[in-house]
């Protein structure tokens, strides 16, 4: 998809009959480049287009905002991208441009999902689906992915699978390999996060572990050569979590040690405490007590308000296991109590939002 799409957009821009048409196609090229991880090239093109768009032509301006938001999103999974998408959306609504409106709405939904604003995200996703032209596979695949992720977040896994399938269908139709990788990543990430959370509380995962391994391997097979920095940073940590569940402490710790910092630079700072706690547990099991204590302290100190409830529960549960292994019984008990409280709050949150999120998603299922 990378060479095909970028080459096609480049060819169309070269053969455009007006400068404005050419610049719009170049803005679309910048969007595609950003989605494929070519952030520097996308930003360089955006800079040129900003200079050329002195008259603020509405369609071109909207596509520039989309390109800027896409670059922000894929550079660091930044929630700041939402502002650029909202600007593109406002222009599209004013112009009556269904393609830009649907794309912008889908991307706003993606940003809202990252901010755990699940109802708003679903509403924007359904709006994108309602307004997307039949030829706009990019908006449709992104919108269904947003719905699937929101459903997964509230524990509605069966309906989530329906929308992952829809999202994959539109990605295949659009020959969008990078999106196919993103879908596979999200499926595996939710699955592995749940398995590792349950494992931290002493629950058995049974045959789910082998399924998760296959899901993770499918990302590697499809994503070879695409070069998405955000996926490159995150996939190793999924593998580390599987090694952790398998009790392969040294292998897991080595991956955590090499990958946590890079993941934080790709917008995953809120997940760092969980990963550090998991690393600390590995270190304690390996008998590296001093490193385990140091890493556990880092995990505890980095818990922030944006850390999701399930990740907070996993963090405290792993810290409890780590501290228990180190003989710090009182601290282990305190962390397990915090873990149980966070998990209880998370379960309550899911139950309170599940019906509403499912009802929105079922409207387009």
Characteristics:
365 residues, mainly alpha
Account of the protein in words:
- The chain is mostly helical and 365 residues long.
- Helix content is 82%, strand content 0%.
- Helix 2 runs parallel beside helix 4 and helix 4 (58-76) runs parallel beside helix 6 (98-114).
- The protein starts with a helix and ends with a helix.
Write the topology of this structure.
Layout: H1 2-14, H2 19-35, H3 39-52, H4 58-76, H5 81-95, H6 98-114, H7 118-131, H8 137-153, H9 157-173, H10 177-200, H11 208-223, H12 229-245, H13 249-268, H14 272-285, H15 289-301, H16 309-325, H17 329-362
Helix pairs in contact: 1-2, 2-3, 2-4, 3-4, 4-5, 4-6, 5-6, 6-7, 6-8, 7-8, 7-17, 8-9, 8-10, 8-17, 9-10, 10-11, 10-12, 10-16, 11-12, 12-13, 13-14, 14-15, 14-16, 15-16, 16-17
Structure at a glance:
With 365 residues, the protein is mostly helical. The chain has helices at residues 2-14, 19-35, 39-52, 58-76, 81-95, 98-114, 118-131, 137-153, 157-173, 177-200, 208-223, 229-245, 249-268, 272-285, 289-301, 309-325, 329-362.
Strand % is: under 5%
Structural class: mainly alpha
Low-pLDDT windows of residues:
none
Radius of gyration: 22 Å
Question: What is the general shape?
Answer: elongated
Helix content: over 70%
Mean pLDDT: 92
End-to-end separation = 27 Å
Largest sheet: none
Tally of alpha and pi helices: 17
- How many strands? 0
Q: What is the H/E string?
A: HHHHHHHHHHHHHHHHH
């Amino acid at each position: 998809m990378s060479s095909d799409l970028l080459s096609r957009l480049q060819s169309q821009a070269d053969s455009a009959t007006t400068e404005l048409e050419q610049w719009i196609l170049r803005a679309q090229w910048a969007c595609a480049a950003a989605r494929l991880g070519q952030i520097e090239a996308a930003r360089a093109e955006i800079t040129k287009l900003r200079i050329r768009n002195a008259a603020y032509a509405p369609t071109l301006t909207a596509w520039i905002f989309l390109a800027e938001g896409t670059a922000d999103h894929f550079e660091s999974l930044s929630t700041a991208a939402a502002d650029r998408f909202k600007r593109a959306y406002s222009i599209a609504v004013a112009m009556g441009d269904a393609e830009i409106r649907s794309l912008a709405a889908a991307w706003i939904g993606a940003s809202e999902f990252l901010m755990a604003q699940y109802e708003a995200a679903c509403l924007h996703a359904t709006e994108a689906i309602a307004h997307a032209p039949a030829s706009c596979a990019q908006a449709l695949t992104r919108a269904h992915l947003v719905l699937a992720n929101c459903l997964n977040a509230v524990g509605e896994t069966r309906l989530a699978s329906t929308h992952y399938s829809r999202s994959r269908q539109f990605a295949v139709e659009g020959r969008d390999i990078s999106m196919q990788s993103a879908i596979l990543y999200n499926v595996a990430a939710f699955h592995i996060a749940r398995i590792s959370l349950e494992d931290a509380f002493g629950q058995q995962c049974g045959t789910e572990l082998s399924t998760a391994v296959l899901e993770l391997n499918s990302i590697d097979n499809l994503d070879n050569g695409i070069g998405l920095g955000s996926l490159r940073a995150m996939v190793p940590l999924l593998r580390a979590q599987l090694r952790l569940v398998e009790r392969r402490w040294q292998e897991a710790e080595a991956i955590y040690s090499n990958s946590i910092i890079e993941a934080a630079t790709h917008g995953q700072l809120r997940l760092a405490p969980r990963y550090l706690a998991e690393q600390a547990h590995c270190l304690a099991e390996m008998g590296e007590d001093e490193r385990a204590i140091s890493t556990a302290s880092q995990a505890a100190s980095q818990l922030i308000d944006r850390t999701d409830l399930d990740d907070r529960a996993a963090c405290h549960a792993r810290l409890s296991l780590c501290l228990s292994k180190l003989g710090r019984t009182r601290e282990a008990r305190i962390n397990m109590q915090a873990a149980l409280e966070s998990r209880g709050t998370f379960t309550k949150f899911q139950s309170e939002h599940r019906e509403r999120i499912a009802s929105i998603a079922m409207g387009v299922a």
